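sorry to bug you again but im stuck and you know this stuff better than me. below you get a single protein, a line of residues and a line of whole numbers that encode the local backbone shape. mainly i need to know what kind of three dimensional shape the backbone takes. anything you notice is useful, everything is just below:

***
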Amino acid sequence: MTQVIIQYVLYLAILVLLAIPMGTYIRKVMNGEKTILSRIFLPVENVVYKIAGVHKEKQMNWREYAKSVLAFSGIGLVCLFLLQMLQGIFPGNPQGLPGVTWDLAFNTAVSFVSNTNWQAYSGENTLSYLTQALGLTVQNFVSAATGMAVLFALIRGFTREKEEGLGNFWVDLTRIIVHILLPLNLVLSLCL
């Protein structure tokens, strides 16, 4: 019992200690300010903008931002749905698992695109390695970034008085993935 209490106290202390530097870093990233990692990640960010045709200075109003979020999530939903339905014909399926039924594929796709990650099946007995890696893992990552982007658009909506726009969804999504989630993922994977 004492070990559990020590573990919780230690966990809480680490969270509190990391909150201020992480919060400062995230604020700088989302405002487009220089950070300690900018030299590494800005070139990657700029390549993504160039490939995707994103103009990072363009501000979106709430309708444009919402359309971008819905389009991105909609494409993710359709791709994940189809990946599950057609997994039987794709490689990365050494068990030869058949495609998932349409209702389970839809339920899972909606769940992962909305970042709720509810699963109504047994992972390795239902989904192939490719479906899990390319479908579920990617959606775990980009749906979290989408939620964070929407949060920052909401914050900008509350805090901006005279400025036009809520930011740019594609810029927010790229910055969150490149500057926050990928480095955090790397650090945490090394710790584990």
